[in-house]
Specification:
The complex is a heterodimer of chains A (132) and B (131). Chain A is of the alpha/beta class. Helices cover 45% and strands 17% of the residues of chain A. Classes of the chains: A alpha/beta (132), B alpha+beta (131).
Chain lengths: 132, 131
């Protein structure tokens, strides 16, 4: 069966969906991403859907599931590049993509993930100051 | 390009229904947003035909109603049918693995929507979108 390729970029995983996904392919992506998040201790997942001509309820639910699973595994998911016609259709369909963060393009999405990774490594100021 | 019949037996067939619907929507001269809405609606109903209707077919054609031109898709299955159509159309109602947005969502995305079903004798759903 076909698989959607997942690239590792530092502590982030990058997925570009280039094909019209049938349901099993979407489910395989959910499984593969889950495995890779743990394997690479990934902090962020960037999913580029700019090539997707539609997002129906199944694909939408898969994106929402991925975001929820990633959250449980301490990784942030950002979906980028949604086409305007797809956004209009999603809202009318009644899909709100709970828990899915979005950005207009891959550059902004990656900036969100990098911000999150930087925050994770920042030592809180009060820990440097010792006890009272 | 009079009409196309796409059998719906596998998940790949649902993708074929999307692609054929797009082709006819372009042929009918629908704009990008209208194309996207009817393709998305077709995807929802095709999945229902596969999952709940145990497979069936989609008949896709360009339709002219007065001055309005558009695309119409008729989905037919010989599955168990729907006992309570009003209930099935409600958002959040699902008898299976879906989110319960399929039928109601597809109705919102279509300018024409009819559904007939006889328990034990299958379901026919007609959707259309016109300029």
């Amino acid at each position: 069966m076909d698989r959607i390729p997942i690239l590792k970029l530092g502590e982030a995983l990058l997925v570009t969906i280039q094909v019209d996904m049938h349901d099993r392919l979407a489910m395989a992506l959910e499984e593969d991403l889950t495995t890779r998040i743990v394997e690479h201790s990934a902090r962020g997942v960037l999913i580029d859907i700019s090539a997707l001509e539609i997002v129906d309820s199944f694909i939408g639910r898969t994106l929402a599931n991925i975001a929820m699973i990633a959250k449980v595994l301490d990784a942030d998911t950002v979906v980028v590049g949604m086409r305007p016609a797809v956004a209009i259709t999603l809202v009318e369909l009644g899909l709100s993509l709970p828990g899915v963060r979005t950005a207009l393009n891959a550059e902004r999405g990656m900036a969100m993930i990098k911000g999150r990774i930087a925050d994770a490594y920042m030592i809180p100021a009060d820990e440097d100051e010792g006890g009272p | 390009m009079a009409r196309s019949t796409v059998p719906i037996r596998t998940g790949e067939d649902v993708v074929r229904v999307r692609q054929e619907t797009r082709r006819y929507a372009i042929e009918a001269g629908l704009g990008l947003v209208d194309q996207t809405k009817i393709v998305t609606a077709a995807s929802e109903i095709a999945r229902n035909t596969l999952d709940y209707g145990k497979g069936g077919q989609a008949i896709i054609e360009v339709v002219q109603i007065g001055a309005r031109r558009g695309v119409r898709i008729v989905f037919e299955d010989n599955g168990p049918g729907i006992a309570d159509i009003e209930l099935a159309l409600k958002d959040g109602y699902t008898s299976g693995k879906g989110m319960g947005l399929g039928l109601g969502g597809a109705r919102r995305l279509s300018s024409e929507f009819t559904i007939t079903s006889t328990p034990g004798n299958g379901t026919t759903v007609t959707i259309g979108r016109y300029k």
